Amino acid sequence: MSPLLEVTDLMVSYGGLNAVDLVSFSVEEAGIVGLIGPNGAGKTTCIDALSGFIPHATGRVRFAGENIEGWPAHRRAEHGLVRTFQSVEMFDDLTVRENLIVAATTTRWWSVFIDACRPSYRVRNIDVEWALEATGLGGEGERYPTELGHGQRRLAGLARVLASRPRLVLLDEPAAGLDSAESVALASRLRSLPDLGIAVLLVDHDMGLVLDVCEQIHVLDLGRVIASGPPREVRTNPDVVEAYLGSEADE
Ligand SMILES: Nc1ncnc2c1ncn2[C@@H]1O[C@H](COP(=O)(O)OP(=O)(O)O)[C@@H](O)[C@H]1O
Ligand SMILES: [Mg+2]
């Protein structure tokens, strides 16, 4: 069976800089794969390219059996390939549940016209409730984002993308700013996603969460994959240690 996501020789250049340089990897159906690397390694650029936010990216990208190169972001999302952003932006004057409903119903700019002509266009309440439960926010739907702690806001950001019932979520540094207890809670939610039929590509510069959650990890440095393997191999790989020590020395 072919993988759910198959990335071959992905390349993104900005002027003379190859931010993503011939990167290849795959994610199996309901798999959980990590992409780590120091700041500036090209992780976010990879997510931007895979989710359709960088039109000039090159390389082959197959998702669920289709070549999706050149597809705009909304078409990828409709096929079940969704992403989160490094910062969680929510509508603070809407409740958590309302934020999820808005996200689940405004995937296309023309949906406003569909709503006007065909009012039967349905809000998928069942998916919104499911996403709240899957992230442990079942009791928080009526609260406002500003009433949530930082960890719960991050989970609400995750719930918002889950509400579209994706097949693969690309998560950009979901643990940023979380304390260790919140990070542990997030890790357990992420580990449960494959059981719900959702594959995960988890991106972080902090190795801890990724090594804890993922089965297979790829390490990026300066746009290139410098190591791939299960957590126990990646953790002790000399090139990986070097890349991380080097980046700490630069800071
Ligand atoms: N829009 C852009 N224009 C120019 N350079 C960019 C742009 N986006 C990212 N870069 C550069 O590409 C490299 C990778 O960035 P990024 O993907 O954000 O790294 P990471 O997410 O791993 O920290 C960095 O050197 C960054 O400065
Ligand atoms: Mg980044």
Protein architecture, described:
Strands 6-7-8-3-9-10 form a six-stranded mixed sheet, sandwiched between helices. The radius of gyration is 18 Å and the shape is globular. It has two domains: 1-80 and 168-251, P-loop containing nucleotide triphosphate hydrolases (Rossmann fold, 3-Layer(aba) Sandwich), CATH 3.40.50.300; 89-165, no CATH class. It is built from ten helices and ten strands. A hairpin with a 2-residue loop joins β1 (5-14) and β2 (17-27). The mean pLDDT is 89. The protein has 251 residues and is an alpha/beta fold. The protein binds adenosine-5'-diphosphate (ADP) and magnesium ion.
CATH architecture of the largest domain, please? 3-Layer(aba) Sandwich
- Taken in chain order, the helices and strands follow as EEEHEEHEHHHHEHEHEEHH
**Each distinct ligand:** adenosine-5'-diphosphate, magnesium ion
Global outline: globular
Q: Give the biggest sheet.
A: 6 strands, mixed
The helix tally amounts to 10
User: What is the structural class?
Assistant: alpha/beta
CATH names the topology of the largest domain as Rossmann fold
